[in-house]
Structure formats: structure tokens, C-alpha cells
Amino acid sequence: MSIYTTIDSPLGEILLVGDGTALTRVAFGGALRPEWRRDPGAFAEAERQFREYFAGERTAFDLDHASTGTTFQERVWAAVAAVPYGTTTTYGELAASVGAPRDRIRAVGAAIGANPLLVIRPCHRVVGANGSLTGYAGGVERKHALLTLEGALQPQLI
Questions:
Q1: 26 included as an active-site residue
Q2: Is the dihedral of CA 31, 8, 46, 6 positive or negative?
Q3: Which CATH class is domain 3-54?
Q4: Cα dihedral value 68, 6, 122, 2, nearest 10
């Protein structure tokens, strides 16, 4: 049985789902499944680490997590997890790092889009070849905000 809770963040509500020992899903908002059981205290450590991250005091997460992707997705997700805080990489560079040929960049993008652990597995650090903020399951505005928080982008003046 999966348990869940939600936490507040500067970018909106974050949904945390896990099996009791490891996180299996992190999303901005998201639909709840009827079989999930709410347990507000289950993810106290994750909540603490998210608070530190958004306060600029944490550059990496140290949380137990489990994912159930294909072998290809897991390879891509491992490469995404290796992108350092405060930096970005492109879809093409990421594809090359996992040995995917150029004609498989869309498959790499699809694997990144299927990442169930937003922020923890930092897919927001993957940008288009020209630096554009293409796609993000949490929304491009959140991607921009996360990259700005990490210092990979300059804040926009209004």
C-alpha cells in the first residue's frame, strides 16, 4: 500500500508518495489514487530536506527512493541524477552520455518526462540545445524558478 502526504513549497504544493520506506513519486500537485493512504508524518525527513533546498541550504537530496522504470529509463534517470546542482545539460548531451544515438533524443526526452521523482532527480536541469527551457512535468515556470534558485539562470527583472 502506498502512503502520501503533501507539503507546501514556494512553487506550490508538492505531493510525496512512497511505500513506507522509500519515496516512489514526487510531483507538483497531482491526482491522488483512491488506494493511497494519507500519512502526514511519514515523510518528515523529505519535508525537512525540501525546506532546506528551497532556502538555498541544500544542493542534493539524501532520501531513500525507488523507481520502476525500464532499463533505458533507469539509465537516463541515473544520468539526470548526475547533473550537478547549479548547472544544466542538454538533451543531446544527456543522450550521448547514455550512449543513445542522435535519432534517440526523443526517447531520451520521453524518459526524462517519465521521471517520477521531480526535483529529487533533477530533470529540470535538462534544457534544449539552444538553452531554451523546453518541457517540464511541473511546468516551465517552475523549471525556470528551480534553475534560478540553483543559480543556473539569472533572475528575471519585471
A1: no
A2: negative
A3: alpha beta
A4: -10
Domain ranges, ordered by start, for the chain:
3-54, 71-149
Tell me what the pLDDT averaged over the chain comes to. 93
Mean pLDDT computed over 86-95? 95
CB 59 within 8 Å of CB 119: no
pTM above 0.90, yes or no: yes
Strand duo 14-18 + 3-7: pairing: antiparallel
Residue of 123, 127, 145, 153 marked catalytic: 123
Helix, strand, coil content of the chain in percent (nearest 5): 35, 15, 50
71-149 adopts what CATH topology? Arc Repressor Mutant, subunit A (1.10.10)
Q: Are residues 134 and 105 in contact, defined by beta-carbon separation less than 8 angstroms?
A: no
Set of cell numbers at residue 158: 519585471
